[in-house]
Write a structure and sequence with these properties.
CATH topology of the largest domain: Elongation Factor Tu (Ef-tu), domain 3
Number of helices: 4
CATH class of the largest domain: Mainly Beta
Structural class: alpha+beta
CATH architecture of the largest domain: Beta Barrel
Number of domains: 4
Mean pLDDT: 85
Strand content: 35-45%
CATH superfamily of the largest domain: Efflux pump adaptor protein, beta barrel domain
Distance between the termini: 124 Å
Strand order of the largest sheet: 3-12-15-14-13-16
Helix content: 25-40%
């Protein structure tokens, strides 16, 4: 018996068609839509979380203060007695002990200038001349007036002599008049003599002479310039006696007195010279608050006037005293104090010091030899644990 193949093919096709028809009848099922993530919101949440963690950590660190738990390292020095010199440093300038600004006693144009800067002049030497033509005319007029007064006096004397010779034949009034004329003539001669002398003195003022011997430091006029008594013509100084002029602040005025030694150094030199305070004013300038001081050299020097000089005035010397750095001093309402190290703790110690413009201050009370003093007491409080740094 044979099998029919066409029947089998029809069956397969029928099954396939039925399967496809069934698939078309089933509904399509899809996943619901999902909203895309919001990156900015996630980033903000992340930042807030990190910030809160950091803030909490910082608060914990501030509370615990691990850096403050250990001793603070400090530099120290041991208090001990040693020789001390208290010095006041000031700047001054070279000046001549004796100097003068020369002015004329008359007014007019300068006809001649006879000196130059740097010239050495003697006392009374001619420095300059003012045109004196007008004054010479005044002198001649005074001379003529004096001559006329002398002639009138001679006539009055002769008349009085004749009247006296004829006393018996002249009236008493005529004799008295002749005597009065002699007296008036003598007074006129005296008046004209005074005018003549005054004219001569005034003429002498038209020649300017050196009032002292010295060197011409400055010449301020030229020939032909019109001057008057307010004009400074020249400055003359005795360079054989040089001093240093300076000012000391009034805070130290009571410490400065004549005779104190000083160490002087001229600008441009590396060597020092010995000197001393020659003069200390007894008056403080109210405008500047400075006390004028003059220092002298033990050995005469040659230097230009106006040169800067650094002066160290030695105010006091002590064979044995305790000093501390200025930075170790703490000041407050209760006074000055230092911090000493005792058993690893910074301990406040009240002290008395001599306040002076120096890097180290002399302690007069409060410290004893062997005390361990903190060199720099900045930001260190009483009772703070400290650790001594090894030098």
């Amino acid at each position: 018996m044979s099998t029919s193949k066409p029947d089998s093919g029809v069956a397969d096709k029928t099954a396939t068609t039925a399967s496809q028809s069934e698939e078309r009848r089933l509904p399509v099922v899809r996943d619901p839509p999902v909203a895309p993530p919001r990156p900015q919101s996630r980033r903000r949440i992340w930042f807030w979380g990190v910030g809160m963690i950091l803030a909490a950590g910082l608060a914990l660190v501030l509370y615990l203060q691990p850096w403050a738990s250990g001793p603070v390292p400090v530099a120290i020095e041991i208090a001990e007695f040693a020789p001390v010199t208290r010095v006041l440093a000031v700047n001054g300038r070279i000046a001549a002990l004796h100097s003068v600004d020369v002015r004329a006693l008359a007014s007019g144009p300068l006809s001649t200038v006879l000196v130059a800067e740097g010239d050495v002049v003697e006392h009374g030497a001619e420095l300059a001349r003012i045109d004196a033509a007008a004054q010479q005319a005044i002198l001649r007029q005074a001379m003529a007036g004096l001559d006329a007064a002398l002639v009138a006096q001679d006539q009055a004397v002769a008349t009085f002599a004749r009247a006296q010779a004829l006393a018996a034949n002249v009236a008493r009034s005529e004799l008295d008049n002749a005597a009065s004329a002699v007296q008036a003539a003598a007074q006129e001669v005296a008046r004209m003599t005074a005018l003549f002398d005054q004219a001569q003195i005034q003429l002498a003022n038209f020649t300017i002479r050196a009032p002292m011997a010295g060197t011409v430091l400055a010449l301020n006029v030229d020939p032909g310039q019109i001057i008057d008594p307010s004009t400074v013509l020249v400055t003359i100084a005795d360079l054989g006696q040089l001093v240093v002029e300076t000012d000391v602040d009034e805070a130290y005025a009571t410490q400065i007195r004549a005779g104190l030694p000083a160490v002087l150094q001229l600008a441009g030199e590396t060597t020092t010279r010995e000197g001393q305070v020659r003069f200390a004013s007894q008056r403080v300038d109210p405008a500047t608050g400075g006390l004028a001081v003059r220092l002298g050299f033990d050995v005469a020097v040659s230097a230009p006037v106006g040169l800067t000089v650094t002066a160290n005035i030695i105010v006091d010397r002590k064979d044995a005293a305790i000093t501390v750095p200025r930075a170790s001093i703490q000041t407050g309402e209760v006074g000055a104090a230092v911090l000493v190290v005792a058993d690893g703790i910074a301990t406040r110690r009240a002290v008395s010091v001599i306040d002076w413009p120096a890097a180290r201050l002399i302690v007069t009370d409060g410290l004893a030899p062997g005390d361990v003093v903190i060199v720099d007491a900045t930001d260190i409080t009483d009772g703070k644990p400290v650790r001594v740094e090894q030098p």
